[in-house]
Write a structure and sequence with these properties.
This protein is of the alpha+beta class. About 35% of the residues lie in helices and about 20% in strands. It has a six-stranded mixed beta sheet with strand order 4-3-2-1-5-6. A three-stranded antiparallel beta sheet has the order 7-8-11, covered by helices on one side. A three-stranded antiparallel beta sheet has the order 14-17-18. Helix 2 crosses helix 7, helix 8 packs across helix 9 and helix 10 runs antiparallel to helix 11. It is globular, with a radius of gyration of 23 Å. The two termini are about 20 Å apart.
């Protein structure tokens, strides 16, 4: 039997969990102001006169304001110089004022009025008659279309060009939050492995993962969960039907949550029961590929070099070249922060140079349709001296949850 797998119950594992939320320190107003100053410097350097942020994680990143995107425009305008302005439905103004972390003027629109016209009029009121407006890439097309129609004197560009240089490099406070989130999810991974028993279903496991994260103090309603057994583990993003666990099957659990908005994302693969030589062989190739990525993740390296390092190991073991199956059919990793997938991306063609503060996943999945798949996913953050792990990686095929290490 694989170490750390089975032998407990859902009730027992939930009873062990207590909230860790009070250990985490949310991002404060001073850091938010520094982010605004940083993006304004990017705007001036790139000839951007104003930035429109929609109800998105970028809005939360720069202002601390979190709102759910709907058909009604809630937005923020950040000029290249000067104070920001919030755009709000008039009937939401009072609520908005209770949510502000960074002060700013509030401009409101009534239900019969055009919110995109108000955005353009506000930018003009800020003394910007012409020039370039950067639009949040999360903006719905109907909103962008309205901005374009109302602001035909302006040029519009994708705001990612000014946002990404800020969000890609995490501060010590961001890394601390993500460390806490990752440790919470690793605790859930270990507890999840212990509840497994022959006949348990993927839906039962999914419910446990959600409740376990809640008990540990994760943000409400912000968990994600992929639980796969047997042949279904070959499908990177799961299958549209539940499975029931049998002895000797591969298990793949890819889960995450958020803590004060910051994401965790960890995957473990292991066998329930006794593993076969084939399962051991593929698991060890996957482990070697993740180690090659970590070794390649040096300051000054490019993201695509890490992807190449993983593929060299996997292809040398006899798997398909490039994206051919059986083998690695997708990128090796992705950036992480307020979004579970964000820049930079560990993939061919991404020539972003690694610098301190960058954070990204290391998950060169091996997929063998008709048999099983293996993914080991931990995240790396770049320090002044090189790569560091957010969480301790899976040690071995026989001890994939590091059963001897305390939760």
């Amino acid at each position: 039997m694989t170490q750390g797998v089975g032998g407990s119950t859902i009730a027992a594992e939930l009873d062990r969990l207590t909230s860790l939320r009070d250990r985490a320190v949310p991002i404060g107003a001073d850091e938010l102001r520094a982010r605004i100053a940083r993006v304004q410097a990017q705007m001036r350097a790139q000839g951007v006169h104003a930035l429109h942020l929609d109800s998105s994680t970028s809005c939360f990143y720069f202002t601390g304001l979190r709102s759910r995107p709907t058909e009604r425009l809630h937005g923020v305008i950040i000029p290249a110089q000067g104070e920001l302005v919030y755009i709000s439905p008039a009937f939401e103004e009072a609520k908005l004022r209770t949510m502000l972390v960074i002060d700013g003027d509030i401009r409101c629109w009534q239900e019969h009025e055009s919110p995109t016209a108000l955005v353009i009029d506000t930018i003009r009121d800020l003394g910007i008659a012409t020039g370039t407006i950067a639009v949040d890439p999360a903006t719905p097309f109907f909103t962008f279309d309205g901005l374009r129609r109302a602001g035909n004197a302006f040029d519009f560009v994708n705001a990612m060009q000014v946002i990404a240089p800020c969000r890609m490099v995490k501060s010590p406070a961001e890394i601390a939050l993500m460390k806490q989130a990752m440790e919470m999810t690793l605790t859930v991974q270990k507890a999840t492995a212990r509840i497994l028993a022959e006949g348990i279903t993927t839906t039962e496991v999914e419910r446990f993962v959600s409740e376990a994260h809640a008990r540990l103090g994760a943000d409400p309603a912000f968990t994600f969960c992929i639980v796969l057994f047997g042949e279904a583990t070959a499908y990177p993003h799961g299958v549209p039907y539940p499975q029931t666990l049998a002895s000797g099957e591969m298990v793949l659990i890819d889960i995450g949550a958020t803590l004060h908005g910051y994401q965790s994302d960890l995957t473990r693969s292991y066998v329930f029961g006794e593993g076969s030589p084939r399962q051991r062989e593929v698991w060890n190739v996957e482990k070697a590929a993740t180690e090659a990525v970590f070794a390649a993740a040096q300051l000054g390296a490019t993201c695509e070099m890490l992807d190449a390092a993983a593929r060299t190991v996997i292809e040398a073991a006899g798997f398909g070249r490039n994206y051919a199956l059986p083998g690695l059919p997708h990128r090796t990793g992705h950036g992480i922060g307020l979004d579970v997938h964000e820049e930079p991306y560990i993939v061919r063609g991404d020539t972003t140079v690694l610098v301190p503060g960058m954070c990204f996943s290391n998950e060169p999945t091996i997929c063998i349709y008709g048999e099983f798949g293996v993914r080991l996913e931990d995240h790396i953050y770049m320090t002044e001296t090189g790569p560091a792990w957010f969480t301790h990686p899976a040690p071995s095929f026989d001890d994939p949850l590091d059963a001897g290490r305390a939760d």
